[in-house]
Design brief:
The strands form 2 sheets. A 7-stranded mixed β-sheet has the order 3-2-1-6-7-9-8, covered by helices on one side. It has a two-stranded antiparallel ribbon with strand order 4-5. It has a single domain, classed as 3-Layer(aba) Sandwich (Rossmann fold). About 40% of the residues lie in helices and about 15% in strands. It contains 8 helices and 9 strands. The protein is α/β, with parallel strands linked by helices. The radius of gyration is 18 Å and the shape is globular. The longest helix has 18 residues.
Length: about 230
């Protein structure tokens, strides 16, 4: 009787895990979240499955320079990973909302992980690389600092692109990094890939830059240059 019950529970868990990797991903990430306590998470945040994929890639493929557009729980987890594993890599997080960045900074300070990330505040403004009347981060004042690295990991989860008016707001990310994206090997992840705006951005990046984001991870897509260990959980 007990064996039948355990067997039924196991089959139900396997079916659930097959549909939704969030509980498993959160379980694997919990050690990196422990020092932060409660963290507010909204529907716009990267999924735990996407964050786990990023962490797997950083470790397995030994990324040396990481940049993300849009700070949040991913910032906390990646900074904690760098601190915990004593990784030799640069991590830059760009955020347009100063109040939200201040909250992220407080969490990082509490966990002793602030030294593992460079927080850049860059308001979203009309930008020379933006298309279709959209805006993007004002990173020109930080060009020299950002230009010091060749990035082999790029995470795009900002700025906001939640309606038709700003649907293409994330397009400038890779054109901005055109000369700083590692030509031999790199990882790129774009969140909210099911939306029409992000799908158009993917098509443009493929045509203009040769970056093909076709590997689906939760609500994100990712792509690679060069050889890599598959990081998808």
């Amino acid at each position: 009787m007990i064996q039948r019950v355990l067997g039924a529970l196991s089959r139900r868990f396997q079916t659930f895990a097959g549909r939704d990797n969030e509980p498993r991903s959160l379980l694997l990430l919990q050690d990196l979240l422990h020092d932060y306590g409660f963290i507010p998470v909204s529907a716009s945040a990267l999924s735990f499955e996407s964050i786990l994929t990023i962490c797997n890639d950083i470790v397995a493929n030994e990324r040396k320079a990481i940049i993300e557009f849009g700070s949040g729980i991913s910032t906390l987890v990646i900074a904690s990973l760098i601190k915990q594993k004593q990784l030799s890599c640069r991590f830059v997080s760009v955020e347009g909302n100063a109040a939200w960045q201040a909250i992220i900074r407080q969490y990082l300070q509490k966990a002793g992980a602030l030294e593992s990330v460079e927080l850049i505040h860059a308001p979203v403004v009309p930008h020379r690389l933006a298309i279709a009347g959209n805006s993007w981060y004002d990173l020109d004042p930080h060009r020299e600092s950002i230009g010091a690295s060749t990035f082999d990991s790029v995470i795009i989860d900002g700025p906001e692109a939640c309606n038709d008016r700003i649907a293409l707001s994330r397009y400038p990310a890779l054109p901005f990094l055109r000369d700083q994206l590692n030509r031999e090997r790199c990882f790129v992840l774009l969140d909210d890939a099911g939306r029409a705006g992000e799908q158009e951005i993917r098509r443009r990046w493929q045509a203009e830059l040769g970056i093909d984001l076709r590997m689906k991870v939760s609500k994100s897509v990712c792509g690679f240059r060069g050889q890599f260990f598959n990081p998808v959980p």
